[in-house]
Amino acid sequence: MILSSGWRKIWLTMHVMSSLGWFGAVAVFLTLALVGMTSQDTQLVKASYLAMKLTGWFVIVPFAFVSLGSGIVSSLGTKWGLFRYYWVLLKLVITIGATFLLMVHTQAIDLLADIAAKTTVLSVYPYGMQLKMVVTSGATVVVLIMLTGLAVYKPRGMTPYGQRKQRQGTAQKNADSPVRATILK
Q1: Domain residues for 182?
Q2: Where is this region: Disordered (predicted)?
Q3: CA quadruple 31, 34, 38, 43: dihedral positive or negative?
Q4: Vertex 74, ends 149 and 159: CA angle to 5°?
Q5: Per residue in 54-107, pLDDT tens?
Q6: Do 108 and 171 lie in a common domain?
Q7: Number of domains in the chain
Q8: Of all helices (H) and strands (E), which one includes residue 58?
Q9: Which among 7, 8, 49, 147 has most CB atoms closer than 10 A?
Q10: HSE toward the beta carbon, residue 113, CA cutoff 13 A
């Protein structure tokens, strides 16, 4: 099913905006994680981890799911399809993986925010968890840039499913052709 031009633009706009929002929110999250790990100001560290929890749950998680869902709808409603081209399939797999890992990492974010809410002592923050927040949010920025590159450059290559669908479409067009129908009579 191909979406009408108006609906395609609506879903594409939703996908682009949520993807940009996801990227921007992760960049903010990375900044907060760096401040939380490196600052010696207890109030700043506390504020960083509390803001990370809010940013994670109320901005990053929703943007990740809207980006995933709108990307699926957009691909299903256009000539690209969901499984026809490797670049679309790769974007899908990476986005599902990134969203899954995000949900796993929310536990660590919640723990750091809970520590921040209960103490003003810097030494109680688990350094490994602080480092994990910096590394994973930095890696997420790279992954989101890579996903954007895939969408912009659209590397060639159809999946076997896409090649089969293309052959079926060509065969159907030939069968429906008035010239072909005349020749077959």
Answers
A1: 159-185
A2: 161-181
A3: positive
A4: 65
A5: 999 999 999 999 999 999 999 999 988 999 999 999 999 999 999 999 999 999
A6: no
A7: 2
A8: none
A9: 49
A10: 16
